Amino acid sequence: MSTAPPTVATLTAGGVDLLSWRFVQDPYATYQDLRDAGTVRRHVVKTLATELNAWVVTDYDNGRALLTDPRLSKDAVNLPAIVNARAVDPNTSAPEHPRSMLFSDPPEHTRLRKLIGKAFTMRRVERMREWIEQTTDELLDQVITPGEEFDLVEEIALALPIYVIGNLLGVPAERFGDFKAWSGALASVDISAEEKQRAIGQAFGYLGQLIQEKRANPGEDMVSALIEADDDGVRLTDTELMSTIFLVMNAGYETTANMISSGVLALLQHPEQLALLRSDLSLLPGAVEEFLRYESPLNLSTIRFTTSPVQVGEVTIPENEIVFVALMSANRDPARFADPNRLDVTRTSNAHLSFGHGVHHCLGAPLARLEGEIVFRKLLERFPDWELAAEPAALRWRYTAQFRGLETLPVRLT
Predict the structure, then answer these.
(1) Is 167 exposed, middle or buried (0-12, 13-18, 19+ CB in 10 A)?
(2) Distance spanning both ends of the chain, measured CA to CA
(3) Are strands 310-312 and 50-57 parallel, antiparallel or unpaired?
(4) Under CATH, which architecture does the 21-413 domain have?
(5) Tell me: the pLDDT tens digits for 53-101?
(6) Strand order in the sheet with 40-47
(7) What is the pLDDT of residue 74?
(8) Phi-psi region at 356: left, alpha or beta (left = phi > 0; alpha = psi -120 to 50)
(9) pLDDT of residue 202
(10) How far is residue 201 from each of residues 16, 58, 98, 185, 188, measured CA to CA in Å?
(11) Nearest to 156 by CA among 278, 260, 266, 263
(12) Cα torsion at 53, 30, 3, 354 (round to 10°)?
């Protein structure tokens, strides 16, 4: 949040303060120093409202390997006790995570992903293309008077994903604002555990009502499809349904919104790349991948813990330790990407980690890519001239530990 005062990065349990305002505004120099110092160190990291001592892996090769390592668990049953044991404040108590695809390991994860995959298909995503194109045009028509300043974050980058996820789930438009508020509360670094728990409670309360409504009156939406998803007579429980919808609601909204706004900013800051992309729109799919690599919508991977000792380079991470992979750092690792701090819309071999890797690779990645391609194509086709309507130094990144997104992006499009 812009009201948070800048703070000086300080040493914590082995490294710099990854929760400081200063770090959030410019993490890349710090991540370069951490990679140079040995790629894995112990830091204080915040998950929901709990500050905890955790291992952060900053290089690409080890990060990618750990995302598929079965010794790193996401099991919801055992996770809270390990979080509590590693909490900076021993008096805090980590909230329990409902069992879901995100917080489970194979074979439970395999069962859930198979069931959810029956509802969240490529065919369903592709069927949304025409509607997303129409919605994007309507948003651009409504908010843009050529040459006048507007906030691309609020009017386009945040608005479109909310509409898309709401349409996908079959949520009434009047509840979209609630989704935005709940997601913002969960992402924030500087609100209390009570406020976060209140947001979770409100979200799950509403989702329970939504599931009841869809059971009574099913439609063509994803919630109805999840209710009906069946694998040899096995279906999702009510808790699994709510946690799945909650995951789609948050992951599909935040990451796509951040990718759109940071991608536009990257092009504004690299006018030669903007001109190149404008001259050849066939580069768009690769450009979207480059936006995702260059400014990952997620700073850190979701939480994991070790079930046995894990060797990372010269460091052994003991059993029952919390581990995060710094996706932003891995995506700028010069050992994997040539000239990693340069935006290059023609970059090939762009196997970034922004959507994760392995069995927990983001199920919604095809939808996010589709939205990105449509938005950037519309912006490039409709507006020949783009201008940043603020000094770059005045731009602020949202004060969150997990996500990487701009607070505002004032622009003029002509």
Answers:
(1) middle
(2) 30
(3) unpaired
(4) Orthogonal Bundle (1.10)
(5) 999 999 999 999 999 999 999 998 899 899 999 998 888 776 666 678 8
(6) 40-47, 50-57, 322-325, 304-306, 72-73
(7) 94
(8) left
(9) 86
(10) 33, 34, 12, 12, 16
(11) 260
(12) -80
CA 259, CA 254: separation in Å to the nearest integer? 9
pLDDT of residue 188: 64
Left if phi > 0, otherwise alpha if psi is -120 to 50, otherwise beta: which for 400?
Answer: beta
Domain ranges of the chain: 21-413
Give the pLDDT of residue 48: 63
Per-residue pLDDT tens digits for 259-290: 999 999 999 999 999 999 999 999 999 999 99
| Tokens read off for 260 | 């759109």
| Coil, helix or strand at residue 115 | helix
Q: What is the DSSP letter of 156?
A: I
Q: Please, what is the angle between helix 271-279 and helix 238-269, to 10°?
A: 110
Q: Is the dihedral of CA 90, 92, 95, 101 positive or negative?
A: negative
Measure Cα distances from 283 to 129, 258, 274 in Å: 19, 20, 11
